[in-house]
Amino acid sequence: MRLLLDSVILIDHFNNIPAATAYLRQTQGESAISVITRAEVLTGFDSPQARITVQLLDRFPTLIVDVQVADLAAALHREQGWKLPDAIQAALAQLHHLTLVTRNSRDFPPAQYDFVLIPYAL
Q1: Which CATH number fits domain 3-117: 3.40.50.1010, 3.40.50.1220, 3.30.9.10, 2.120.10.30?
Q2: CA angle 18, 11, 104 (to 5 degrees)
Q3: Which of 6, 27, 59, 65 could serve as a FRET partner for 13 with CA atoms 20 to 30 Å apart?
Q4: How far from chain centre, in Å, is Cα 87?
Q5: How far is residue 106's CA from residue 11's CA, in Å, rounded to a whole number?
Q6: Domain ranges of the chain
Q7: What residues are paired with 33 via a beta bridge?
Q8: Is the pTM of this model over 0.85?
Q9: pLDDT tens-digit profile of 98-110?
C-alpha cells in the first residue's frame, strides 16, 4: 500500500469520469481509503446504490482515526488552516507514509506538499 485515495477520486469514478476510473484500475492493489473517504462517498448514495458502492469501498484497506491521527490532524488544522476532514486525510497519509491522491489542488498544491499527488485534472 502506497497511496491514500481522497474522496474526490472515488466520487469522480462514480460520476463516470474516465480519468478517475482509469486511475483506480492502474493503481489497483496499491491504494487505501480512510474512514473519512468512506463516509463522504457513502453520503452521496441512497440504500440500493449504497450496496454497490460498499462493494467497491470494501476492496480497499480502510485506515481509521486513532489518537495519534487525531492529534496530528488538530495540529495541521491549526497550522495549515485546512478543514478538519482534509487535515485528517493529511495526517493519515503522513503517519502511514502514503501519498495522498486528490484533485484538491487548492488546499493541497503538490508543489508545496511532497506527500500529495494530483493524478488528473478536469
Answers
A1: 3.40.50.1010
A2: 95
A3: 65
A4: 11
A5: 18
A6: 3-117
A7: 62
A8: yes
A9: 999 999 999 999 9
Mean pLDDT of 28-45: 95
Residue 120 near residue 19 (C-beta atoms within 8 A): yes
User: Which residue type, as a one-letter code, is found at position 77?
Assistant: H
**What type of residue sits at position 10?**
L
DSSP string, the chain: --EEE-HHHHHHHHTT-HHHHHHHHHTTTTEEEEHHHHHHHHTT--HHHHHHHHHHHTTS-EEPP-HHHHHHHHHHHHHH---HHHHHHHHHHHHTT-EEE-S-TTT--TTT-TTEE-----
Residue 33's identity, in one-letter code, is I
What pLDDT is recorded for position 47? 78
Sequence-distant contacts of 49-53: CB under 8 A, at least 24 apart = 53/14
